[in-house]
Amino acid sequence: MTPGEKVIAVGVLSTMNLAMLLVSGFLAAGSLIATIPLATAIVHQ
Questions:
Q1: How many CA atoms lie within 13 A of 37 on its CB side?
Q2: Cα–Cα distance between 40 and 25 in angstroms, integer?
Q3: ∠ CA 14-20-24, rounded to 5°
Q4: For each of the chain's 45 residues, which pLDDT tens digit applies?
Q5: CA distance 29 to 36
Q6: CA dihedral 29, 32, 33, 36 (to 10 degrees)
Q7: Neighbour count for residue 17 (Cβ, 10 Å)
């Protein structure tokens, strides 16, 4: 592999990792937002 190819490979891997982190972050935020109404409903009973 040439140095340029290594740079491209590292860039692709890091962008994939960032995308996975973003997706998991959105999923975690979504599940948190979904549980807030449930938690408040349980507390107010």
A1: 4
A2: 23
A3: 145
A4: 899 999 999 999 999 999 999 999 999 999 999 999 998 999 998
A5: 11
A6: -160
A7: 10
Cα(12)–Cα(7) distance, integer angstroms = 9
pTM comes to 0.59
Q: Which is nearest to 26 in space by CA: 18, 37, 36, 16?
A: 18
DSSP string across the chain:
--HHHHHHHHHHHHHHHHHHHHHHHHHHHHHHHHHHHHHHHHHH-
Write down the residue that tokens 């349980």 correspond to: 42
Residues 17 and 28: their CA atoms lie apart, in Å, by: 16
